[in-house]
UniProtKB/TrEMBL annotation:
InterPro entries: Intradiol_dOase_C, Intradiol_dOase_core, Intradiol_RC_Dioxygenase. One of its GO terms (molecular function) is oxidoreductase activity, acting on single donors with incorporation of molecular oxygen, incorporation of two atoms of oxygen. PANTHER family: DIOXYGENASE, PUTATIVE (AFU_ORTHOLOGUE AFUA_2G02910)-RELATED (PTHR33711), INTRADIOL RING-CLEAVAGE DIOXYGENASES DOMAIN-CONTAINING PROTEIN (PTHR33711:SF10). Pfam families: Dioxygenase_C. Keywords: Dioxygenase, Oxidoreductase. It comes from Roseicella frigidaeris. This is Protocatechuate 3,4-dioxygenase subunit beta. Signal peptide: none annotated. Belongs to the intradiol ring-cleavage dioxygenase family.
Length: 246
């Protein structure tokens, strides 16, 4: 794969191969007690067909079609600050060989500090924050870097049989240089006691792969006054890939 052009876009040359995931990286689905994984998990194996150049290389320059630049979820407008612990999440998007992926579209969405999403499907009896929408979209720079200012999301109970809670987490969708490099996943916070009790987090069998879902804290002096920092690199495909999360 060639380097990015002067505008940060990817060259059209297709990678020669994509290394497969080793056993234990893909989540074991469907997940007991989480209904969406039953309705969204195929009951039959997929029909395999060889990818063509269209699937491998397209869509090119997707960032031109999807407006980017919403990197501050914590400040809706001047003087309108979201409630909760202010944090910064940043890192790099990398390919399977550890090379940066410039021009990737990175989307983030999350619950507010009370653990409620700004979405009509979330009708839980928890407060909504009028100054927090909870989603943003940016484009990685020439070195594959991304970053969001936001707030630490709250935990919330799962509306399903059995008493279990989702730990604080954020959702990511990453669209890299090709259709095959799209990744939908989640990021968790280090040391949270709900992590090992979360059925979605624990659906990834391999412990080392689960650790790739957990962000790393950054010393406060590297982030700036008022913000706690976390680093979270995202790897598209390959043996060191960031695991998929529903």
């Amino acid at each position: 794969m060639e380097d990015a052009g002067p505008d940060g876009s990817m060259a059209a040359e297709a990678p020669r191969h994509f290394a497969p995931w080793p056993p234990g990286v893909e989540p074991a689905v469907p997940i007991a007690g989480y209904g969406n994984t039953f309705t969204h998990t195929p009951s039959q194996p997929p029909i395999r067909r060889p990818p063509t150049r269209t699937e491998v290389t397209g869509p090119l320059e997707l960032w031109r079609k999807l407006p980017c630049g919403d990197d501050n979820l914590a400040v809706l407008a001047p003087g309108r600050m979201a409630q909760g612990q202010l944090i910064h999440i940043g890192g790099r998007v990398l390919d399977e060989d550890g090379r940066p992926v410039p021009g990737a579209v990175v989307e983030l969405w999350q619950a507010n500090a009370a653990g409620r999403y700004f979405h009509p499907n979330d009708q839980r009896d928890a407060p909504l924050d009028p100054d927090f929408i909870g989603n943003g979209r940016i484009r990685t720079d020439a070195a594959g870097r991304y970053g969001f200012h936001t707030i630490r999301p709250g935990a919330y109970p799962v509306p399903a049989p059995g008493a279990w809670w989702r730990p604080p987490h954020v959702h990511f969708s990453v669209l890299g240089p090709a259709t095959l490099s799209r990744l939908v996943t989640q990021m968790y916070f280090p040391g949270d006691p709900l992590n090992p009790l979360d059925r979605i987090f624990m659906s990834v069998p391999d412990a080392a792969a689960r650790e790739r879902l957990v962000a790393r804290p950054i010393p406060p002096e590297e982030v700036g006054l008022g913000w706690l920092g976390y680093r979270h690199d995202i790897v598209l495909r390959g043996r060191a890939a960031t695991p998929v999360q529903p």
